[in-house]
Specification:
2 copies of one chain form a homodimer. By secondary structure, chain A is mostly helical. The first copy, chain A, is 50% helix and 6% strand. The first copy, chain A, has 2 domains: 2-76, 3-Layer(aba) Sandwich (Glutaredoxin); 87-208, Glutathione S-transferase Yfyf (Class Pi), Chain A, domain 2, CATH 1.20.1050. Chain A has a 4-stranded mixed beta sheet with strand order 2-1-3-4.
């Protein structure tokens, strides 16, 4: 089994942090997205979507969505649990993880990919070229501000995003916050609860993964 | 336990089809999105996100993401399995379900909400108003065309979206296809495999849910 990865990209980092929390190590292959290695015929044969991460099983089967890769390791390495314990908690964690993607990761990607000079004509990852939409970048930045407000309010009442235990929802939120900071959208000083949470999750050894 | 629902909206339909496949019936409350009932103070107290579906437990806890609600019922009503059997299959189903959202449901929502005259200033669901972005509607329609091509190719080799068994990925794909048809983006006649699949999944009793 191996992981196609790229050290500088936010989505593969979500898998790396998840695996570090589980204590799982995997051989990995770096696909240099800045050098365009995701578009080589060799990598297209591995993942026609031209994205990382991709988990490859020894029989050649491949899975290319972060949450799916995490689902696999949650089932095979249940301890520590990162996707909830019992039906109700699993649902609550799934809801927050999903929301952190919809209102976080994908929104940060909107903000970044629709404005970065190096991504002209590449507003979406994948094999197709799409023009940048400046209004979408602007909307993305505004929405990240709203997300930070929301999370600050939620984290006033509990330690972690989905409850009193660190979960995959914290990982998605952490990677979103750190990704947004790279293009200048940062947690406001006034958002003390979100700041506190960010310090806590960043201090975990897994955050360096 | 009850479900806040709206018969005409695509996201709650995903939950209804899932429950119908499981043979689960729940009391439901219709929130008339066309009449703006999601913005009443009463409903904002139930879900500040102003969206349906919402699953409400008897103790008052609430979950408001489709995949999270389905996660709950998969755990409590495992038969028939709709989210995979065993770690590897669960991951494959999660990958396809997720992809059907990212490349399907959310893209159809881009296409619809950024162009529908009745949704001016409401390009996103939720409590905030965002202006429509016409370029995003146009991109959404183009991407749905690409999705139909992709699915037609995939379904040449297997019966259902995630393999040889009907799963949540088929539900997300079915609801996406039917939603897109409402604004004129339909499966091309040449996409025989996708047409075949659509007939099969539409003929299941759950499709009427």
């Amino acid at each position: 089994m191996k992981l196609y990865d790229y050290k500088l990209a936010p989505n593969p980092r979500r898998v790396r942090v998840f695996l570090a929390e589980k204590g799982v190590t995997l051989p990995s292959v770096q696909i240099d997205l800045r050098a365009g290695e995701q578009f080589t015929p060799e990598f297209r044969a591995i993942n026609p979507e031209c994205t990382v991460p991709v988990l490859e099983f020894d029989d050649g089967k491949r899975i290319g969505e972060v949450v799916a890769i995490c689902t696999y390791f949650e089932a095979t390495h249940p301890s520590p649990p990162l996707m909830g314990v019992g039906a109700e908690d699993q649902a609550i964690v799934a809801a927050w993880q999903h929301r952190m993607e919809r209102q976080g990761m994908w929104v940060a990607a909107d903000a970044f990919r629709n404005s970065a000079p190096g991504l002209k004509g590449r507003a979406l990852p994948g094999p197709e070229d799409y023009a940048q939409i400046p209004a979408l970048a602007e909307r993305g930045r505004a929405r990240l501000g709203k997300l930070f407000e929301l999370l600050d309010g939620e984290l006033a009442n509990r330690e972690f995003v989905a409850g009193d235990r660190y979960t995959i929802a914290d990982i998605t939120a952490l990677v979103t916050v750190d990704f947004a900071a790279r293009f200048g959208v940062t947690i406001p000083n006034a958002s003390a609860h979100l700041q506190r949470w960010h310090q806590v999750v960043s201090a975990r050894p897994s955050a360096a993964a």
